[in-house]
């Protein structure tokens, strides 16, 4: 297998106010188009990104975060990886946060479990210094 | 998205088409404008066309459900039309409870459904 | 080796020597200056099958093959020893029974007090086994279709074969002495060191990373998918591990091709059929896994949108068992179709399927169900008729409305 050496094409979007939601969706949509994802897969990823952005706006102290979007390749497939980082208080119980109906922010708590169902991979890296949720959606 | 939402009135039915990438403020404005308009024109039915929305996340879905509940309290029925396959699958996977939403494929079928819903409501059926 | 052969103490010395000679496991043969046997130890006897009494006084040349005798090898050995004080060689020797053995030979001259030659001492060692092991091992290693890499406990490469050079693009010299991790992609190295230590702690023959996709990295930085089996090697030099590395690029590509073909066949085998104007049927046949269920749902929803279908019939008579997973997929499909505004009808539900769905506690909501596809179609047409009536009435409402205003 030869390693594909296409440019990394990394996009970042700051997440500070609700207006940034639109910019998050646009950045994800552009990445989905570049990676050749279908309409259904794109919609799922953009929606998951929307939910994760709302999580940051709801939970993170000082309400600040950063989205990093990049294209990924493996075994002949292209995909999009999106990392949502915040400097919020962290998630004390990751397993619980991934359970439907769990919420400390007053919403329905669909953010993490819902997002996980919409993507192919979801990874949470959390500490009291902040949380990074990384999702990957692969093309078919 | 302009500040005022174009709301079309046909008989006693209101029709509104949501389009593009909606920010939360725009979504909340729709709620206010639609409920005000239902009361102002004594509408009996509302058709919300969402075929122009590329993304419906849990927030937008919740606001839609809220609008429908408010409109029902104001004496009218609401039908949401034009949910695309991608949005439908996404909402189901996301797990947003949408069971109480009345939906139709297009405006024509939406109007037909509104008529049936009104007939049921007027008969006093407890559906 | 130089042995003094005369003088007043030489007799005692020679007896000591004989006692030593009787103990050692190498064959020790003493010769006179002409090459006749004057001493023959126990090991020489067991090595050749000739007893001392049979050999004393005979020329040592009986041990040589005819060809070697003809070539004057004995003279060459003795001459070499005489000139340089020692001769080392290796060759085939013949036992009393005619069988041959590979011998490692060392010959040293024995001189008298005045420096004159009094004879020779010759050491014989059977290296037949060692030689065969070595050459067979080398041949096996070199001809192996896999890259074979022998690793020492400190994780460094001790030995590689030709195929390793071909597979990874390094020469032997570049690899030997390097940590084995040079062949592991950067991103996996840390983990690899950990696993490697674990293996040396409890070595046993096994495949590496069972069910994992393993990768190696070539000198040029490109990666290749590999399969690796590990075997512990107990050697004189200590505990080693032999890793057999196989390039599975082709096999993985083939597996993926097969999977794609299977997917395509699966998709063909479950088409969405338009059974009536605005009525679609989806006969589900076979087992539903998540990937296939997702594709079926997408295909169905696309068709609903494309054909503006108002009723869909999900026929599950071809599904062998309805478990939680299948039921949940069905439920999701129905929910998504409902969101789009289509009515779903389930058909082909067998008694055991009905029991399963209810026992599983799955709420299919207001989903209507019919026993057969025919009954389901009748219901679908009824739904369409009802909808048409209200659609016509609705159209009349609109036409009769006072007007359109913004």
From TrEMBL, chain A:
The record ties this protein, via Pfam families, to: HATPase_c_2 (PF13581)
* InterPro entries in alphabetical order: HATPase_C_sf (IPR036890), HATPase_dom (IPR003594)
One MF annotation (Gene Ontology) recorded for this entry = ATP binding
Q: Which SUPFAM superfamilies match?
A: ATPase domain of HSP90 chaperone/DNA topoisomerase II/histidine kinase (SSF55874)
Q: Which residues form the Histidine kinase/HSP90-like ATPase domain?
A: 16-137
Organism superkingdom? Bacteria
Q: Does the keyword ATP-binding apply?
A: yes
Alphabetical keyword list:
ATP-binding, Nucleotide-binding
CDD domains recorded: HATPase_RsbT-like (cd16934)
The protein's name in its UniProt record:
ATP-binding protein
Species in which this protein is naturally found: Catenulispora subtropica
From TrEMBL, chain B:
Instruction: Note one Pfam family from the annotation.
Output: STAS
Gene3D superfamilies from the xrefs?
STAS domain
Q: Which domain of life is it from?
A: Bacteria
Q: Which InterPro entries match?
A: Bact_StressResp_Reg, STAS_dom, STAS_dom_sf
Q: Which CDD domains match?
A: STAS_RsbR_RsbS_like
Q: Where is the STAS domain?
A: 3-114
Signal peptide range in chain numbering: none
Q: What is this protein called?
A: STAS domain-containing protein
């Amino acid at each position: 297998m030869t390693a594909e050496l296409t440019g990394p094409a990394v996009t970042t979007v700051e997440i500070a106010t609700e207006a940034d939601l639109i910019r998050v969706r646009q950045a994800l949509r552009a990445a989905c188009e570049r990676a050749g994802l279908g309409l259904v897969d794109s919609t799922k990823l953009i929606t998951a990104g929307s939910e994760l952005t709302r999580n940051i706006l709801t939970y993170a102290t000082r309400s600040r975060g950063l989205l990093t979007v990049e294209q990924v390749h493996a075994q002949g497939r292209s995909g999009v990886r999106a990392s949502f980082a915040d400097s919020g208080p962290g998630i004390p119980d990751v397993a619980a946060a991934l359970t439907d109906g769990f919420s400390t922010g007053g919403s329905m708590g669909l953010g993490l479990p819902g997002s996980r169902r919409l993507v192919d991979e979801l990874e949470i890296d959390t500490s009291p210094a902040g949380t990074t949720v990384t999702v990957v959606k692969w093309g078919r | 998205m302009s500040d005022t939402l174009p709301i079309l009135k046909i008989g006693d039915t209101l029709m509104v088409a949501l389009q593009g990438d909606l920010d939360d403020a725009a979504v909340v404005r729709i709620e206010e404008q639609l409920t005000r308009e239902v009361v102002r024109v004594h509408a009996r039915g509302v058709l919300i066309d969402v075929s122009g929305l590329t993304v419906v996340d849990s927030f937008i879905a919740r606001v839609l459900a809220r609008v429908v509940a408010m409109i029902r309290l104001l004496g009218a029925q609401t039908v949401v039309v034009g949910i695309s396959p991608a949005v439908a699958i996404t909402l189901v996977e996301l797990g947003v409870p949408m069971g109480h939403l009345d939906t139709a494929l297009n405006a024509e079928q939406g109007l037909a459904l509104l008529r049936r819903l009104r007939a049921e409501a007027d008969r006093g059926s407890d559906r | 080796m130089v042995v003094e052969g005369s003088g007043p103490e030489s007799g005692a010395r020679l007896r000591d020597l004989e006692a030593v000679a009787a103990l050692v496991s190498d064959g020790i043969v003493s010769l006179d200056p002409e090459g006749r046997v004057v001493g023959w130890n126990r090991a020489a006897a067991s090595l050749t099958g000739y007893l001392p009494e049979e050999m004393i006084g005979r020329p040592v040349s009986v041990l040589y093959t005819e060809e070697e005798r003809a070539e004057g090898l004995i003279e060459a050995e003795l001459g070499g020893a005489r000139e340089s004080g020692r001769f080392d060689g290796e060759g085939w020797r013949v036992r009393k029974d005619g069988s041959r053995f590979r011998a490692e030979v060392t010959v040293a001259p024995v001189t008298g007090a005045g420096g004159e030659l009094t004879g020779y001492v010759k050491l014989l060692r059977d290296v037949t086994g060692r030689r065969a092991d070595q050459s067979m091992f080398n041949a096996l290693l070199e001809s192996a279709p896999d890259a074979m890499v022998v690793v020492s406990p400190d994780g460094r490469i001790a030995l590689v074969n030709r195929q390793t050079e071909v597979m990874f693009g390094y020469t032997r010299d570049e690899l030997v002495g390097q940590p084995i991790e040079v062949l592991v992609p950067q991103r996996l190295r840390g983990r690899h060191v950990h696993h490697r230590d674990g293996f040396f702690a409890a070595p046993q023959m096994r495949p590496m990373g069972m069910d994992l996709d393993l990768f190696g990295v070539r000198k040029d930085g490109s990666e290749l998918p590999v399969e690796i089996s590990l075997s512990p090697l107990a050697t004189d030099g200590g505990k080693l591990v032999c890793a057999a590395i196989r390039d599975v690029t082709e096999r993985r590509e083939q597996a993926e091709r097969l999977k794609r073909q299977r997917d395509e066949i699966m998709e063909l085998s479950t088409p969405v059929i338009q059974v009536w104007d605005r009525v679609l049927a989806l006969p589900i046949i076979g087992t539903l896994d998540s990937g296939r269920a997702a594709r079926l749902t997408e295909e169905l929803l696309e068709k609903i949108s494309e054909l503006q279908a108002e009723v869909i019939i999900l026929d599950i008579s071809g599904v062998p068992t309805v478990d939680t997973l299948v039921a949940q997929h069905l439920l999701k499909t129905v929910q998504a179709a409902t969101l789009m505004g289509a009515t779903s009808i389930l058909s082909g539900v067998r008694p055991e399927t009905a029991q399963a769905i209810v026992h599983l506690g799955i709420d299919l909501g207001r989903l209507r169900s019919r026993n057969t596809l025919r009954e389901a179609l009748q219901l679908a047409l009824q739904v369409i008729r009802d909808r048409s009536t209200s659609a016509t009435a609705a159209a009349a409402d609109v036409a009769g409305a006072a007007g359109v205003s913004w």
